[in-house]
Amino acid sequence: MSEKAGSQSGGSSEASGVTVSDIQELIRRKEEIEAQIKANYEVLESQKGIGMNEPLVDCEGYPRADVDLYQVRTARHNIVCLQNDHKAVMKQVEDALHQLHARDKEKQARDLAEAHREALSRDESQGLSPAQAFAKVNSVSPGSPASIAGLQVDDEILEFGSVNTQNFQSLQNIGSVVQHSEGKPLNVTVMRRGEKHQLRLVPTRWAGKGLLGCNIIPLQR
């Protein structure tokens, strides 16, 4: 039994060729071993309810006459070997599941990267280019509407309400949008450390100056 388990271990540890059917076969083997262990324990139970550790000699040191010593010794040996096989198969199942999950994650990452490349290629073919930042936040006052909205120093602005890189001419564009949006939420898109963030900014009168509480400067491209 131990030799059989050992040869299985060598075969199933091949690097990356694990399939669902391989795992199903390992689980079938595990269940088969468990059934064999149960059967051998039933043999022990049939011998006066003896277990794995009870002595097989009487108080005078003679072999017990009330049990089949051969059956008991054989069943105990089988159980020890089968438990070792069971431990080995369980390790194989665990390793195989790890390999399968790792491969699935790699495939998902490849699929996402490919989808991103296809989207960029589509945009290029349609004459579209990624949104460009046109302004930058260089200060944010604590407790201000800008701070509450989540704006941070060094955020690069891609969209500020209706203002974007296509129609931005000067900071007056942003000032005009702010004045006409007091108390109303504005959608603001910023680039922060290479990632886009969508913010909801409500120009509001507060303890400080202006309706935003931040300073914005134009970017020179």
TrEMBL record:
<comment type="subunit">
    <text>Interacts with PSMC3. Part of a transient complex (modulator) containing PSMD9, PSMC6 and PSMC3 formed during the assembly of the 26S proteasome.</text>
</comment>
<dbReference type="GO" id="GO:0008540">
    <property type="term" value="C:proteasome regulatory particle, base subcomplex"/>
</dbReference>
<protein>
    <recommendedName>
        <fullName>26S proteasome non-ATPase regulatory subunit 9</fullName>
    </recommendedName>
</protein>
<comment type="similarity">
    <text>Belongs to the proteasome subunit p27 family.</text>
</comment>
<dbReference type="GO" id="GO:0070682">
    <property type="term" value="P:proteasome regulatory particle assembly"/>
</dbReference>
<feature type="compositionally biased region" description="Low complexity">
    <location>
        <begin position="1"/>
        <end position="17"/>
    </location>
</feature>
<dbReference type="InterPro" id="IPR036034">
    <property type="entry name" value="PDZ_sf"/>
</dbReference>
<dbReference type="InterPro" id="IPR035269">
    <property type="entry name" value="PSMD9"/>
</dbReference>
<feature type="region of interest" description="Disordered">
    <location>
        <begin position="105"/>
        <end position="127"/>
    </location>
</feature>
<dbReference type="GO" id="GO:0005737">
    <property type="term" value="C:cytoplasm"/>
</dbReference>
<feature type="domain" description="PDZ">
    <location>
        <begin position="124"/>
        <end position="194"/>
    </location>
</feature>
<dbReference type="GO" id="GO:0005634">
    <property type="term" value="C:nucleus"/>
</dbReference>
<dbReference type="InterPro" id="IPR041489">
    <property type="entry name" value="PDZ_6"/>
</dbReference>
<feature type="region of interest" description="Disordered">
    <location>
        <begin position="1"/>
        <end position="21"/>
    </location>
</feature>
<feature type="compositionally biased region" description="Basic and acidic residues">
    <location>
        <begin position="105"/>
        <end position="125"/>
    </location>
</feature>
<keyword id="KW-0143">Chaperone</keyword>
<dbReference type="Pfam" id="PF18265">
    <property type="entry name" value="Nas2_N"/>
</dbReference>
<comment type="function">
    <text>Acts as a chaperone during the assembly of the 26S proteasome, specifically of the base subcomplex of the PA700/19S regulatory complex (RC). During the base subcomplex assembly is part of an intermediate PSMD9:PSMC6:PSMC3 module, also known as modulator trimer complex; PSMD9 is released during the further base assembly process.</text>
</comment>
<dbReference type="InterPro" id="IPR040815">
    <property type="entry name" value="Nas2_N"/>
</dbReference>
<dbReference type="InterPro" id="IPR001478">
    <property type="entry name" value="PDZ"/>
</dbReference>
<dbReference type="Pfam" id="PF17820">
    <property type="entry name" value="PDZ_6"/>
</dbReference>
